[in-house]
Structures are given as C-alpha cells and as structure tokens.
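User: Could you go from structure to sequence for me? I need the amino acid at each position, not a summary. Structure tokens:
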C-alpha cells in the first residue's frame, strides 16, 4: 500500500496585526484578561481584497514550491474552512484555478476547527487506496469577517490565516500513520454561525439580530476540548502501536493556552514537546494546525524520523487526531532563476484562467 508523505508545507498570515490593547479600545476587555484566560497577545486580520481563497493560494504555492512539485501534478485539492469565499462555488475551485492545477479535483470540507485533520485523513486515505498520487490539503480562514467585533466573549479569540501541505504517494515507510475522526452533532449549538444557510437565510431580521456572526458557549466548548484532546490522542497512538513517549512533537489546535496546558498535563507530555504559537495568531480555526506545523518545521522542531501528532476539535462538535512520521527535511533555498520561473508559471496560470473565463461565454 502506498503511504501518504508530507513533502511540502507553507503558510500565509496577513500583514495587519490587531493587539489586545487595540481590542481593549473596541470592547470592555484588557490585555491582562485576554493573556491570562487565553494566552493570546495578537492576531492577524485579512486586509481589503484578501479572502480565504487568496490566503489559501499563498500557502499552497509555498507548499508546492517547497515540494518542488508543479500544480499540474496535483490530483486533489481540499480546502478545510468555515469561512469560504462563497457558499458555492467551493473555495477549493478558486484555489485550483489560481494555481493552474488543471488536473485536480477540488472540494471544501466543513468540520470547524477540526477541518484540517479531517482533510488530511481523507486525502491520505485516497492516496493509500491508490485513487490519487498527490494532494494539496489546505486549512484557511477569514474569521474576522464573521466575528462580532462588539462581543467581547468571542472577538478576542479569532484571527485569519492559511496553512497548506502537499501529500504525495510513496512506497517508503512513514508519512500519515493513522487518523481518528469523531463527531457529536448534539453539541451543534455550542459553536455556530446561525444565519446565511438554508435554516435562516439572510434577511433584515438575521442582520438586525447579528445572526451572521459566531456564537459560542465558551465554557462548554472549553470542557469538551479538555476532555476530547487526551482521549483522541490516545486513540490515534493506539492505532499506530506507538506510545506517548514516541511522540516528538504534539500540535494541538490553537484555541486557548489553558486548554492546551490541561490536555498536556493529562497526557503527561513534557512542555518542550508541545507546539504553541497561540500568542501571535489567536485561534485561526482550520488554519491553526497547518500554520503551526509549517512553523515547527521552519524552526527545526520537526526532523525526518520524528513523530508528530496533530489534534483538532471544534464546531460540529467535531474532533480528530492524526499521527505522522515526518520524512522530509526543510528544503534548500531555491535559486533566483527558479523562483522567477515559478512566478512566471503562476502568472501564465492567471492569464490562462482569464482566457478560459472568456471561453465559457463564447
Ligand atoms: O476553536 C473552537 C473551539 N473554541 C474554543 O476552544 C473556545 C473554548 N472556550 C474558551 O476558550 C474560554 O471559555 C473563553 C476564553 C471563551 C472564555 O474564558 P472563561 O475562562 O471560560 O471565561 P467565562 O466565559 O467563564 O467568563 C468569565 C468572566 C465573565 O464575567 P462574569 O460573568 O464572571 O462577571 C465574562 O463576562 O469573564 C468575562 N469575560 C471577559 N472579560 C473581559 C468574557 N470575555 C471577556 C473579555 N474580557 N474578553
């Protein structure tokens, strides 16, 4: 059976930074409250013209370039997101077009903050089955567009960004070792975006009642997260036959520092094996794990042979964990002429897209 190896990774976070002090001028909160209760100090927000698709494309290009794989080699693109550009078409199709990934199938995956783990599991299974060879798995979010900036319970938590990995079939051992996915829809009202779907289509009333913004029962979600992270971690390790001592790096969904601390205590993981970049980005939902994964490799915290366990939890309720044996080193810097050719290729893809847009109307 072919194994699904992570051979490329990339991330994109928008330039604009919103600090806790900025927030304290918008709602009744303080830097002290946010840091002690969440661990977050700042978050990045999408600029005008930036969307989930545009950020996903940036992360995906970096991941493909790092892997040395051209977009025409990609068989499947999955974008895990709770903030797609449109209800339809999928954000994945917009990414497919922008990359010029002409051979790829493309779809979005909605599993809240667990989306990236779900997407990685689906893509890995398709590679292992032999159905595809190369997949681009992206987690991307523009949560700032569905955040109620008057609600201090939620607005201090979220940020925007995107992360991506390239998964490639290989006969070598390693890569994605196991994935465990879970869901319990009885908790659907604990974290939701009430309006804009078929239940409450947009109306004057839904806008007036601020139903197009995230609603969350924070304490309940907190309790759920603290319970589910250790149990799903143990399940995924059981499937691989590994123990917690074999884990080189643990990457939990970056939602709240206290949730991470509690889970880590329960799992008896030493703090140096736990990745945490929450203070710089806040909760970027489906993007948080791939952004963290990418930074961990860039910082030299993941090397070939290491086992990384990623755990997600969030709206649905959903949860999931994946264990990966890392097999690829950080790529060498790319020479300038190759960077130029890659930029040219993406420019040609954009031109091709424009021409095809005209063609559909002929
Ligand atoms: O990614 C999806 C998963 N989402 C999560 O994992 C989120 C999970 N939940 C949490 O992270 C935490 O529950 C929060 C950070 C959202 C809230 O922290 P908490 O320690 O659970 O606070 P709380 O909701 O119990 O509220 C405690 C107090 C309340 O005041 P009273 O009623 O005790 O007077 C809140 O009104 O803190 C107040 N409060 C704030 N105060 C200052 C809530 N938000 C703020 C704020 N600034 N931003």
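Assistant: Here is the amino acid at each position, in order:
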């Amino acid at each position: 059976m072919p194994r699904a190896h992570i051979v490329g990774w990339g991330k994109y976070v928008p330039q604009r930074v919103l600090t806790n002090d900025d927030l304290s001028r918008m709602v009744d909160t303080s830097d002290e409250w946010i840091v002690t209760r969440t661990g977050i100090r700042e978050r990045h927000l999408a600029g005008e013209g930036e969307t989930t698709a545009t950020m996903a494309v940036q992360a995906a290009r970096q991941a493909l370039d790092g892997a040395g794989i051209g977009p025409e080699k990609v068989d499947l693109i999955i974008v895990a997101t709770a903030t797609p550009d449109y209800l339809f078409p999928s954000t994945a199709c917009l990414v497919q077009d922008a990359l010029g990934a002409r051979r790829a199938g493309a779809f979005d995956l909605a599993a809240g903050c667990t989306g990236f783990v779900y997407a990685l599991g689906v893509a890995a299974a398709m590679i292992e089955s032999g159905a595809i060879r190369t997949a681009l798995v992206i987690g991307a979010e523009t949560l700032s567009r569905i955040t109620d900036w008057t609600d201090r319970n939620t607005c201090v938590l979220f940020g925007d960004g995107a992360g991506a990995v390239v998964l490639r079939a290989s006969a070598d051992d390693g890569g994605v070792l196991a994935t465990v996915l879970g869901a319990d829809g009885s908790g659907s009202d604990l974290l939701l975006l009430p309006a804009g779907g078929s239940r409450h289509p947009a109306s004057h009333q839904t806008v007036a009642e601020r139903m197009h913004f995230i609603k969350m029962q924070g304490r309940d979600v907190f309790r759920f997260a603290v319970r589910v992270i250790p149990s799903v971690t143990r399940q995924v390790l059981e499937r691989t036959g590994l123990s917690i001592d074999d884990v080189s790096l643990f990457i939990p969904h970056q939602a709240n520092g206290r949730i991470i601390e509690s889970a880590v205590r329960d799992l008896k993981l030493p703090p140096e094996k736990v990745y945490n970049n929450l203070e710089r980005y806040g909760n970027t939902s489906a993007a948080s794990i791939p952004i963290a994964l990418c930074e961990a490799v860039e910082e030299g915290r993941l090397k070939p042979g290491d086992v990384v366990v990623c755990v997600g939890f969030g709206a649905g309720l959903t949860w999931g964990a994946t264990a990966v044996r890392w097999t690829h080193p950080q790529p060498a810097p790319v020479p300038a002429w190759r960077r130029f050719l890659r930029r040219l290729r993406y420019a040609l893809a954009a031109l091709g897209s424009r021409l095809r847009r005209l063609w559909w109307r002929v």
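One structural detail worth keeping in mind: The chain has three domains: 3-172, 178-325, 335-362.
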